[in-house]
Design brief:
Elements lengths: L2 E5 L5 H16 L5 H11 L2 H9 L3 E8 L2 E10 L11 E9 L8 H15 L4 E7 L3 H9 L3 E10 L2 E11 L5
Parallel strand pairs: 4-5
Antiparallel strand pairs: 1-2, 2-3, 3-4, 5-7, 6-7
């Protein structure tokens, strides 16, 4: 299997939207009401919202390809683009979205390593992310990647409050 990465550009907005919606539905459809899913998808992944995120100089998106086929993407945030105030020494992994047919190919680990490379390049001391408390497979994966739960915050799926665990990986030993 050949794996490649490509930084997203404004020309990729349509594809970014398509993959965002597809992967979010694949992952969360069965645990949420259709109305809450619809409302969230329309708010989070409309073209104007994605363009705004892509325009932010403190956010970057990267497509991951498996054998020349787009398999998903990574979104990282620094500075004020972080969804929680974690300090300028932090990099947030806001999204690792992998298409279902590409699960179990090591792409999540590959994207975590891209985030680590970016964090080190930008002299960050830690990486953090939020993961839904009911997403047990993702939590297990992040623990294997040396992330440790350090807190929690609320995430709203439509009118339903859900809890995301805040998990942090310290990078000082990587320098």
């Amino acid at each position: 299997m050949t794996v490649n990465i490509k930084k997203c550009t404004f020309g990729d907005l349509g594809l970014l939207q398509e993959i965002s919606i597809e992967t979010f539905i694949e992952t969360f459809k069965n645990q949420n009401s259709p109305e809450n899913m619809k409302n969230y998808l329309e708010k989070a992944f409309n073209l104007n919202q994605l363009e705004k995120e892509l325009s932010n100089i403190s956010s970057e998106f990267y497509f991951v390809y498996s054998n020349e086929e787009i398999a998903g993407y990574l979104k990282v945030n620094t500075n004020d683009a972080q969804t929680e105030k974690m300090g300028n020494d932090s990099l947030e992994i806001e999204r690792i979205y992998i298409r279902k047919k590409h699960h179990k190919q090591g792409l999540g680990k590959y994207l975590i390593n891209i985030a680590i490379e970016k964090a080190m390049e930008w002299k960050k001391e830690k990486i953090w992310l939020g993961v839904w408390e009911k997403n047990e497979s993702a939590i297990t994966f992040y623990k294997k990647m040396d992330f440790v739960q350090k807190g929690a915050h609320s995430f709203y799926m439509g009118d339903e409050e859900q809890i995301d665990l805040i998990m942090i990986k310290t990078l000082k030993e990587c320098y």
